[in-house]
Amino acid sequence: MIELTSLTPQLHAAHWGWTIAIFLWLVGLAGMGFFLNYWIRQKNFVYLLTVSALLGTLLVVSHLARMLNLPFAVFSALADFSFNFQSWMFIGICLLSILCIGSVFYSMVCAKIIFKADCWQPMIKSDWFNGLFAFLGVCCTIYSGFLLTQAVGISLWNTALIPLLWIMSGMASSIGCIELLMILKWIDPNTVRWSRRTSFWVEVAELFTIFAFIHVALGSTLAASRAGAESLISGPQSLMFWVGVIVLGSVVPLLLNLLTRSHRILACSAILGIIGALLLRASILFAGYYDPMLF
Mind listing the pLDDT tens digit for each residue in 158-180? Predict the structure, then answer.
């Protein structure tokens, strides 16, 4: 295999760090979690998703700017009505803000904090309310993947497969959290009897999407895209990719779900799936290379 990183000194790694990887992971967990919550509607799961959405948003905001400067920037934009509606980052912050505000409201109604009246309870159990959150969650997950596809000069990420991959891995980590909460008896097992069967097919779909992503990158005409794929297969990110993402994060949970019903083993399987979703995002981020400028 050709060592593409040696073709030119201008082929440099993007160096997006763990802050962005964890942000993408938390947003995927919260987004696809609210999608699955349409069928679950369990308050402990909602609390977990709310914390995930808040932490993910705080991470990306802290990465973009100083935290204390953000309120002043928001106030100035509101005062002048000077919003950049053509900015994907602005659109993303709006989506994440709506998700955070909505999930906090959802949690407060579940916990009967401030919103204590009985009239709120039928609303959070209604199809339209949970359907709205499911739609918002999918939009935030897709956006977190679409954001990578808009990175200029990093051809490994410029593919429509990343949003789909984020959806699959977000589903896997969300189902892992559901299984952990079920084992801990924090949610009603009768509401998630479908989790093992769904987890199996989600893992299969995730593996297929990963294969398609690598195949497309290796077949690209752009050197940076091929270099990124080779970094995942046999380069600096190969250990994280093969051991963390493929074996421990996907194959092992898939086999354990087929072979055993032990709660302890299923708990380990769920934890591996959750960690695998994080390592998937980290490995793809770290494998990103800028396209070289050839003269």
Answer: 888 999 999 999 999 999 999 99
Mapping DSSP onto H, E and C, the string for 94-140 reads HHHHHHHHHHHHHHHHHHCCCCCCCCHHHHHCCHHHHHHHHHHHHHH
Q: How far apart are the first and last CA of the chain?
A: 24
Residue in the structure block whose two tokens are 């799961």 = 45
Site of tokens 């055993």 = 260
**289 in helix, strand or coil?**
strand
For range 122-130, the mean pLDDT: 92
Domains by residue range for the chain, with CATH = 4-286 (1.20.1630.10)
Q: Which of 6-10, 171-175, 220-224, 259-263 has the highest mean pLDDT?
A: 171-175
Whole-prediction pTM: 0.86
Are 291 and 151 within 8 A, CB to CB? Answer: no
Task: Please determine, for residue 269, whether its predicted confidence score (pLDDT) is greater than 70.
Answer: yes
Are the beta carbons of 20 and 63 closer than 8 angstroms? yes
Query: Quick one: pLDDT band at residue 7, thresholds 50, 70, 90?
Result: very low
Residues whose CB is less than 8 angstroms from the CB of residue 63 and which lie 6 or more positions away in sequence, other chains included: 19, 20, 23
Segment 148-152 long-range contacts (CB within 8 Å, at least 24 positions apart): 148/24, 148/284, 148/285, 150/88, 151/14, 151/288
Q: Report the b/e string of 142-172 with b at 16+ CB within 10 A.
A: bbbbbbbeeeebbbbbbbebbbbbbbbbbbb
Nearest Cα to Cα of residue 249 among 224, 277, 227? 277
Q: Which structure tokens are listed for 48?
A: 């977990």
